Amino acid sequence: GVHITWVVEPMPSGVLVPHNSIDDVVVFEKRNGLAGVAQLRRDLGARPRADITINLNIYFKSVFPTVFSRGRDRWGFDRGRSADGTWLFANRHLQPGPRAHTQDMFLEFLDALHVPRMSLEWGLEITKAERDAQAVFTEKLDGREMVAIVPASANHKKDWNATEYAKLVDAVESDFGLRAVLIGGPGARENAIANDIVSQSSHKPVWSLEDGVRRLLWLIDSCALVIAPDTGPVHIARALSTPVIGLYGHTNPWRVGPYRWCEDLWIDRYTDPGEAPDPSRTDPKDDRMSQITAADVLEKVQQWTSSRRNTVVQ
User: Fold this and answer.
1) Rounded Cα distance, 102 and 274, in Å
2) 270 and 251 in contact (C-beta within 8 Å)?
3) CA 237, 137, 155, 40 torsion: positive or negative?
4) How far is CA 171 from the centre of its chain?
5) C-alpha closest to that of 75 among 102, 98, 107, 53
6) C-alpha span between 92 and 7 (Å, rounded)
7) What's the chain look like in SS3?
8) CA–CA distance, 274 with 284 (Å, rounded to integer)
9) With CB atoms counted within 10 Å of each terminal CB, which end of the chain scores lower, N or C?
10) What sign does the dihedral 87-89-90-91 (CA atoms) show?
11) CA distance 106 to 119
C-alpha cells in the first residue's frame, strides 16, 4: 500500500530501474543549474503530494526535492549532522547523535518511523537482456575468473598510483591466474589513468571502461573480486555480495566503506597505527593513498584466495 518515489541524480539513477521496491524514479538534472531545478519542480508538482519525505542527504542540493515533494512530514538529519542549513527545510528530525557509517545513519530513519529493522537486502536486478550481454562478454575471455579493477574515483585525491596498479595487474594475471578487467566510466581522467596502467603492464588487462551504470552492474556481477578506491562500484559490489579489496587513505573506510563487508580485506591507511577505527571522523587525509603499495594489495588477494580455498575444503 506504499508508493515510493525516489529522486536521484542521473549517474546512479540506472541502479534503481528496474527495482521491485521502487515505483517511480525522478531524475534531478542538478548540473543544468536553475533549469534543472525548475524541471524538478515541474516533475514533482505533477505527482501527488507526498505523505512522508525522507531526506537521506545532508547537502544543499537535497533541499529542492525535499521542498518540491510538498511532504507533510519532511524527515531529515539533526542540525549537528547536517550541512548547508538543510535541517531548516525538514519539519521532523532524527535524534541528535554521533556520525557513524553512512548506512547506519540511513537506518536511523527506520527507527524514527517505527519501521522494524530486518535483514538488509539491496535487491539489485539484472535484466534478461543484460544477462545475455554478460554471457557474450564472458565467452570472449579464456575461462579464467575475473578481477574488476577500478582505476579512478570522482575525486583525484582518492585515486591510487597507476604504476602500482600496473604491478597489481601483472601479478594478478601471472601469479594468481586471474583475468584483470578495468571497469568504470568513460571520463577523460579515468581513461588517462587506465591508459597509463595498460602502458606499464606486461599482461594487458581487459578494457571495459564505458558509459552506463547498468553495464557496470552486470560486469561486477560477473567478477569474482573487485579492487577499488572509495567509489561507487564498491557499494554495487557489496549489494551483489561480490568480495571487495578496498583501498582507503584519503577517506575513512569505517564511515564510507562497503557496509559490514570484507573488512578484513580493506587496506586502511586512513586510521593511524595503534588507533581504533572511528566511523565518526569525516576529515579527509591528503597524500595517504601513496602509502599503499602493490605488495599490500597482493597480500589481500592472497588472503582472499586462501579463504576461498579453506571454505571449499571445509
Assistant:
1) 24
2) yes
3) negative
4) 26
5) 53
6) 19
7) CCCCEEEECHHHHHHHCCCCCCCEEEECCHHHCHHHHHHHHHHHHCCCCCCEEECCCCCHHHHHHHHHCCCCEEEECCHHHCCCCHHHHCCEECCCCCCCCHHHHHHHHHHHCCCCCCCCCCCCCCCHHHHHHHHHHHHCCCCCCEEEECCCCCCHHHCCCHHHHHHHHHHHHHCCCCEEEEEECCCHHHHHHHHHHHHHCCCCCEEEECCCHHHHHHHHHHCCEEEEECCHHHHHHHHCCCCEEEEECCCCHHHHCCCCCCHHHCEECCCCCCCCCCCCCCCCCCCCHHHCCHHHHHHHHHHHHHHHHHHHHC
8) 19
9) N
10) positive
11) 14
Q: Is the dihedral of CA 269, 274, 275, 277 positive or negative?
A: positive
Q: Around Cβ 153, how many Cβ atoms within 10 Å? A: 24
Look up cell 586462501; give the residue: 306
Q: pLDDT in tens for each of the 314 residues of the chain?
A: 899 999 999 999 999 999 999 999 999 999 999 999 999 999 999 999 999 999 999 999 999 999 999 999 999 999 999 999 999 999 999 999 999 999 999 999 999 999 999 999 999 999 999 999 999 999 988 889 999 999 999 899 999 999 999 999 999 999 999 999 999 988 899 999 999 999 999 999 999 998 789 999 999 999 999 999 999 999 999 999 999 999 999 999 999 999 999 999 999 999 999 999 999 999 999 999 999 999 999 999 999 999 987 765 44
Cis peptide before 12 (omega within 30 of 0): no
